[in-house]
Known about the structure:
- By secondary structure, the protein is an alpha/beta fold.
- About 30% of the residues lie in helices and about 25% in strands.
- The chain has 19 helices and 31 strands.
- The strands form 8 sheets. It has a 7-stranded parallel β-sheet, sandwiched between helices. Strands 17-27-26-18-25-24 form a 6-stranded parallel β-sheet, with helices on both faces.
- The protein is globular.
- About 45% of the residues are buried.
- Bound molecules: adenosine-5'-diphosphate and zinc ion.
- Zinc ion binds near residues 444, 447, 449, 464 and 465.
Amino acid sequence: MKEDSPLTTAAPVLVPMPAERAYTYAVPERMRVVPGSIVRVPLGPRLVAGVVWDGAVEQVDPRKLRPIDHVFDCPPIDHDMRRFVDWIAQYTLTPPGLVARMLLRAPEAFDPEPWIEGLQRTALAPGRMTGARSRVLETAESGLAWTRSGLAHAAGVSSTVIDGLKAQGVFETVMIPPRPVVAPPDPTYARPELTPDQAAAAETLRAGTAAGTFGVTLLDGVTGSGKTEVYFEAVATALDKGKQVLILLPEIALTHAFLERFQSRFGAKPAEWHSDLAPKMRERVWRQVAEGTVRVVAGARSALFLPFKELGLIVVDEEHDPAYKQEDRVFYNARDMAVVRGHIGSFPIVLASATPSVESQVNANQGRYARVDLPARFAEAALPTLRSIDMRRAPPARGSFLSPLLVEAMSKTLARQEQSLLFLNRRGYAPLTLCRSCGHRFGCPVCSAWLVEHRFRGQLVCHHCGHNERRPDACPECGTIDHLVACGPGVERIAEEVVATFPDARTIVLSSDLVGGVRRLRLELEAIAKGEADIVIGTQLVAKGHNFPNMTLVGIVDADLGLANGDPRAAERTFQLLSQVTGRAGRTGKKSLGLLQTYQPDHPVMRAIVSGDVGAFYEREIAERERAALPPFGRLAGIIISAETRHDAEAHARGLRRAAPEVSDIFVLGPAEAPLAMVGGRHRFRLLVHGERRSDMQGFVRQMLAEGPKVRGSVRVSVDIDPQSF
Ligand code: ADP
Ligand code: ZN
């Protein structure tokens, strides 16, 4: 990589604000800055951190410029990363300053980590030997420096023992450099014996990684086929080449099990990166990634913005997962941006999934991505037998949500002392509460959504803005007491039914609002894996990646749930989610069963799941997308216009619509009320821009925004290039 030369007199600095371009600052004499340097600059009355950017500076008399205040002692953000930020800003139509903000998320890390006080053995011997003292001396035998508490802990003594030895001169104080957050991984630590299929797949990935050039490989294999083991071989190759590796995971709930798995393969954990990391740890990881001490990061989508020193491979696990899409400030899909990052940095990308996105399938079909298949589960693990339960023919008893067929399967599973999982992707007790006397429905006062009853908490809650109120006894409309009824099930209600039906079974409910934080969730998941529950009832938290060896029955309570909205992506999403959930069963040699409760057993999604004819399902999906020129055969952008009044939002949306350029290959649909017409008291309208595959969507939308009405008052406009739902 080429070295950036220092800038004298003036430098463009990108600050982490909605700035459309870098601002110019004077470089004081004797200050050394290069593109990528992290600096502190005055901005209005404040001092903020920013990055020295590329490009020519404005021709201004440097004496009129405000000077850079400080250069941090930090490795500069490299050229590839700067290009990546610019690329995302261009592509997503976001001010580059806002994108740069994602890269400056660890302010304390801009200064080097301080050295810490440690203790080192001297030549002196203690005056009197005790058991505790000899344990300390044994522990410190290697002559390496220890921290006081680290030594006490390792020797199993109290810190006062250490203090006593220090007072006698047996230890002296030394300064020791900051410890790595994780030990270096060893590519040869525990290489598994791969099956012939796996070995062939691994070889393809290894070759791609060793070549060290850009290329995307779709690793497509059923759940449990060993995709992780296989891409670990590519990770090992990258490490051998002295490269850093990023593994993206969709869900932080998954990272813990993943870290352990990585450790058993590489002898050390990767560094984690996600929003739940303690601030101090965040700073250290950021810094050590920049310095190259951390070799592998396993993280959520924001890990794409870590300042890697020598990144050489990105793996996107569960590449189809909607969690990779950020829809806040910077609207981006981390899977797609990982591909861009690989292109800019000339290194390979691996996309892994049991149910790849239609986009990736098409890319592989058309030869833009290589494809590696793993068709079978590892060892004797067999995919579950899958059946749909036609709810029209085998309806549940009144007031119940589980078909007799599912209940029977559950009781057989219990009798075999195996585990069942009931999946319902809906938190709370019931999605709607109404009054039987007057028909009043409880809605959110500030969103166009019904309030969901959470019975454990005794509340009615809005799942969009968090508004909550106590569930009253009387109807607020007609005053009738005790006439409120819960309509439809959430996981809490299913749990109630399960407990009533199987009072002796150990039942666990897993739902993000019940599980108190990531730690608690981890414990629950471990307990389930150890067999400490008979029946698990969960939302999509339980769908992903977990390995529950004794789980032999999966029941989908409402397989049709995701199909209800009119979104063209609904079938794909439902298929992916249902495949993933049913994939929780049959992780070992035991026979397993997946049952789907559905009112539409002939729906292509149900047929694909039950028959296992995944190929036919994708073919049909792809053909439909192609016919309608929907992504990836055409392009879409969503523009959401919101305001405090319906009138302002709609007027602005119409104004934007009128500003649309006249071209033949792109047209605008709407404005129409957004799928959620009101959220948090803001009224929302949507324009959908639909273009051909090679259309210049960005140019088109940019022109609309530039020529449309000025954003004023409470109006907000956000652009979502490649929206998830459309
Ligand atoms: P996937 O990522 O495709 O769902 P995993 O990599 O999680 O599959 O593999 C499923 C299970 O099989 C894991 O417990 C894994 O450790 C085990 N496994 C897969 N391949 C091998 C292998 N070659 N040797 C030993 N265990 C394996
Ligand atoms: Zn609300």
